[in-house]
Amino acid sequence: MALNIYGTALESRLLIGSALYPSPKIMKQAILASGSKVVTLSLKRQSPHAKSGQKIWQYIQEIITIVDGHLLPNTAGCKSAQEAVTLAEMSREIFQTNWIKLEVIGDEYNLQPDAIELLSATKQLISNGFKVLPYCTDDLVLCQRLWDLGCDVIMPWASPIGTGKGLMNPYNLETIRFRLPQATLILDAGIGKPSDACIAMEMGYDGVLLNSAIALAENPTKMASAFKQALQAGEQGYVAGVMKERQTAHPSTPTLDTPFWHQSN
Fold it and tell me: What confidence score (pLDDT) does residue 263 get?
């Protein structure tokens, strides 16, 4: 099945960032190797109107064209609802898309989202016709509020941005999945290795958004390919139905009521 983002079906369940790569060339190679159909871009960091960002923007345009994909602008670096809304409106004008990855950071130490400002910005943007993909913590109540405001897609973190710590609170993430069965849930931030992404998909998450884990790898292109395969494995495992854990050991070749064949001398 395809990943559904506000009615758009995507073949890949991996969304990928465009920051931190050693070079634009490596960024392009890694994104293509990932198979991703969605590339995130921060207007604050890589504006196509700024000379310093023109080369990056050209590479991203080429990638989007090659993969027939989609650009997902984000409001990285914003600290208030008004700042995020203003940046989102600028991004829509420049990049010609209603999609916006909404980030409103409340703490500089762990880059945790500000729940109050996030909800305020979400309400304003949805009323202005945006398709909001909010970055939030693994807080069930916050995710529920975002869903109630009209976010079909919600992106809780696995752990703080760029830490690579993986899924810090699996119980929280599983609870969000269980309580919001109709929401498209994309795990965002903190993923460090392919197995983290696989676990998220086995939980029933709809996708994973990555940047640092690929861009900061020794070989970003190979790592992008590894994540591609990890997401596919996790999704297939979820669809197939992972076996339930047991408290006691069970032999894989039980002997009870099984005939034994004896070789005669």
Answer: 58
| E strand or H helix that includes residue 133 | strand 131-136
* Alpha carbons 5 and 32: distance in angstroms, whole number: 20
pLDDT of residue 85: 96
What integer pLDDT is reported at residue 245 of this predicted model?
Answer: 79
In this prediction, residue 107 carries a pLDDT of 82
- Report the distance separating Cα 99 and Cα 74, nearest Å: 9
Residue 125 has, within 13 A of its CA and on its CB side, a CA count of 36
The pLDDT score that the predictor gives to residue 147 is 97
d(CA 200, CA 144): 19
Helix axes 115-127, 81-95, angle to 10 degrees: 40
Give catalytic status of residue 222 as yes or no: no
SS3 label, residue 89: helix
The full set of domains in the chain, from first to last, is 20-240 (3.20.20.70)
**What percentage of the chain's residues is helix, strand, coil (to nearest 5)?**
40, 15, 40
φ/ψ of 155, rounded to 5, equals -125, 80
CA distances from 110 to 107, 143, 159, 196 (A): 6, 19, 9, 20
The active-site residue, picked from 28, 44, 55, 101, is 101
- To which residue do tokens 């921060």 refer? 42
Series of mean pLDDT values for 10-residue runs along the chain (265 residues): 90 92 90 94 61 67 87 92 95 92 87 93 97 96 97 95 91 96 94 95 95 94 96 92 79 63 56
Helix or strand run (H / E) with residue 9: strand 8-10
- Is the separation of the CB atoms in 228 and 12 below 8 Å? yes
